[in-house]
Amino acid sequence: QQLERLSLDELDELENEEDEKVILEYRKKCITQMKAEAAKARYGEVRENSAEDYVEHVNNAGEGVWVMLHLFKQGIPLCSLLNQHLSQLSVKLPATKFLKSISTTCIPNFPDSNLPAIFIYFEGDLKKQLVGPHEFRGMNLTMDCECV
After folding, report:
1. What is the pTM of this model?
2. Cα–Cα distance between 92 and 39 in angstroms, integer?
3. Where does the Phosducin domain start and stop, copy by copy (predicted)?
4. pLDDT tens-digit map of 89-111
5. What are the tens digits of pLDDT across the range 22-64?
6. Are strands 117-122 and 125-131 parallel, antiparallel or unpaired?
């Protein structure tokens, strides 16, 4: 009934106020989403991990956190190539925690024949493992590889 009494100018002003409220609410929602995404994007690099840090950085990584752990050894060309690719990938996926560890430091007596090895975890649970050069197509490995 009150709307019927308003003039066209008053209705137009009321409509503009409502539009402004909707736009402000939408803006707040977008800012909240952007802040949430920025909070997730906290890694962006491959970090060295020790056996002592394993539980903290892998098993207790946190809710919603993916962890990719690369076991490697110096002097193995495919491990070096994979480290290069993972460094690039970590920048593209900053919400994923990328770790690398010298194989025998992380797992005593880990055989060199199983290198490189990648273990992928989500919220502390192992989801996938890629072990040995055959999993990575040898030195033909590229950033476009769909082996993961």
Report:
1. 0.71
2. 15
3. 6-131
4. 999 998 899 999 999 988 899 99
5. 999 999 999 988 887 776 667 889 999 888 888 889 988 888 8
6. antiparallel
Would you state the structure tokens that stand for residue 44, as one six-digit string?
Answer: 């962006």
Domain 46-136 has CATH 3.10.180.10: no
**Token pair for 143:** 């950033």
Residue 4 vs residue 135, higher pLDDT? 135
Token couple for 110? 């880990």
Q: How many residues does the chain have?
A: 148
Tokens of 82: 């994979």
Please state the three-class secondary structure of the chain as a single string: CHHHHCCHHHHHHHHHHHHHHHHHHHHHHHHHHHHHHHHHCCCCCEEECCCCCHHHHHHCCCCCCEEEEEEECCCCHHHHHHHHHHHHHHHHCCCCEEEEEEHHHHCCCCCHHHCCEEEEEECCEEEEEEECHHHHCHHHCCCCCCCC
In the block, residue with structure tokens 């956190």: 65
- In Å, what is the CA distance from 33 to each residue of 27, 38, 39? 10, 9, 10
Tokens for 123?
């919220």
